[in-house]
Amino acid sequence: MTKFSDLGLSQPVLQALDMKGYSDPTPIQAQAIPPVLEGRDLLGIAQTGTGKTAAFMLPSIDNLRRADNKVPFKSCRMLVLAPTRELAGQIAQSAKDYGAMAGLSVHSIVGGTSVNKDRNKLHRGCDILVATPGRLLDLIDQKAFALNGVEILVLDEADQMLDLGFIHALRRISQLVPQDRQTLFFSATMPKQIKELVGKYCHDPVTVSVTPAATTAERIDQYLFMVQQDEKQTLLEMILLEQHPTPGDFERVLIFTRTKHGADRVVKRLAQRNIPANAIHGNKSQPQRERALDEFKRAKTPILVATDVAARGIDIPGVSHVINFELPNVPEQYVHRIGRTARAGADGVAIAFCAEDERSYLKDIRKQTDAEFERLPLPENFRAVVEGVGPTKPEPKQPRQRVQPKPRGASAERAKAKHPARKGRPQGGRSGAAAGGQAEAGGGGNRRRRSGSRSRSRG
Ligand code: AMP
User: What pLDDT digit, counting tens, does each position of 369-415 carry?
Assistant: First the structure.
């Protein structure tokens, strides 16, 4: 097994890794760090949660230290472009953590915040700047910043930047950065436009592919409910209230809807059932997003309803379940969504709700991502609850048996070691995510233990 110390990183960076508690490099780190240290351009095909931030940040910190150039006036030495504010914030934090011993200055600039503050902040330049493309070009247009000092350029989640309409911004930026620089280009998927961009930005890049483009994360168990669109909310509530034997223990549940209004609607209806949840989407202000994320991270409100754009790049360890309340119409988006769980080696559960009119999306997802779903039956009394004739008063609590993901060799052993509760969980016990909800018996007493084969994606 490769160790961080085998990769040629400097002592200050190794020390910072020690402080973070990382002992072994992830595959992308092991493969990317040596060529980046040599100054090579890199094309990283990697989905979220693979540890790609450290894969580009650690060697770059060393390269910056070694070159020891002066911080340029109104410019930066390393520029990292990221699609969303959240991701930019996380990358900047990682740069500060990993560079803690290296004495490098780090700033981030994102849309939705005061442009004047950014202008002042960047006046003296900095070593590392993390930016969303729109805000960066704003400042360049105002002559408050220039890219002449850039030694290292990183494009993170390039496919998402394209999805968000940053193609023109990226083309423009490619004209403004110095020719003599190193480029590290990351994308989870490789559509044609991305290949063209790689050609524009990179010079003879080393390609590191952690999982083939558009395959679903390996350690995620994927389940499917076929359910009518207008019955999805009821199903969601029954799952969160543990009236249905869903696999795994809820720690933090991330729910995806296609639209902002859809996200708000889900949150409102959950609130009516005393299930606290927050929404995160483009109509929320920056402080609202930050608060929602913070409450989710601290598991104060461990249910977050998100749209794709807002959720992109969110790094929260311990997302136990991703629920696709609506299926995305772009298969790659499915990969990104479920990549929120099972980050950096943890196991995760993804549950898809598919309505009749989403069957074609499901077909595309299956075809293009190799995802294999295990279909789950609707709760036993689902029809009665939907029709309003199901039990409304809590019945005496009955022992319940939760479906557990089927053991799968080594990873099951790891799961047991990590979640000893899974071995002998108290019957009827409830876990964090649904704790705010009212326990309703809903006829969900002795649940059938799910049998049959468990399917999962194989990358
Ligand atoms: P990323 O794919 O860069 O967003 O990283 C996903 C998560 O993995 C983040 O929470 C990182 O802090 C964490 N991580 C990155 N590298 C390692 C490592 N070598 N060991 C353990 N966790 C890591």
Answer: 777 899 999 988 898 888 876 653 334 334 334 444 444 333 334 33
Which of the listed residues 26, 47, 312 should we mutate to test ligand 1's pocket, taking the one with most ligand atoms within 8 A of CB? 26
> 220-386: same fold as 4-209?
yes
Q: Which atom of ligand 1 is nearest to the CA of 48?
A: 2
DSSP states of 269-286 as a string?
Answer: HHHHTT---EEESTTS-H
The alpha carbon of 51 and the centre of ligand 1 are apart by a number of angstroms equal to 4
Q: Which two tokens stand for residue 452?
A: 């049959």
CA distance 357 to 115: 43
List, for residues 83-133, the tens digit of each pLDDT value.
Answer: 988 899 999 999 999 987 888 999 999 988 889 999 999 999 999 999 999
Pocket of ligand 1 (CB under 6 A): 22, 25-26, 29, 48-54, 315, 317, 343-344
Which of the 8 DSSP states describes residue 356?
G
pTM higher than 0.70 for the full model?
Answer: no
Task: Report how far ligand 1's centroid is from the alpha carbon of 63 (Å).
Answer: 21
Task: Give the pLDDT confidence score for residue 284 in this predicted structure.
Answer: 81
Within 10 angstroms of residue 285's Cβ, the number of other Cβ atoms is 9
Q: What is the pLDDT of residue 221?
A: 87
Tell me which residue has its CA closest to atom 14 in ligand 1: 51
Task: Return d(Cα 145, Cα 316) in angstroms, integer.
Answer: 32
E strand or H helix that includes residue 203 = none
Residue with the two structure tokens 């085998």: 6
Task: Kindly provide the b/e burial profile for residues 293-316, where b requires at least 16 CB atoms within 10 angstroms of the residue's own CB.
Answer: bebbbeeebbbbbbbbbbbbbbbb
Instruction: Name the DSSP class of 380.
Output: T
What CATH number is given for 220-386 in this structure?
3.40.50.300
Choice from 19, 22, 29, 97 to test ligand 1 binding pocket (greatest atom count within 8 A of CB): 22
pLDDT at 36: 98
Q: Which of 80, 125, 131, 95 shows the shortest CA–CA distance to 13? A: 95
Ligand 1 atom closest to residue 46's alpha carbon, by position in its atom list: 2
Phi, psi of 267 (to 5 degrees): -60, -45
**3-state per-residue secondary structure call for 22-61:** CCCCCHHHHHHHHHHHCCCCEEEECCCCCCHHHHHHHHHH
Q: Which token pair is 89?
A: 């914030």
Instruction: Locate the domains of the chain by residue range.
Output: 4-209, 220-386
Superfamily of domain 4-209: P-loop containing nucleotide triphosphate hydrolases (3.40.50.300)
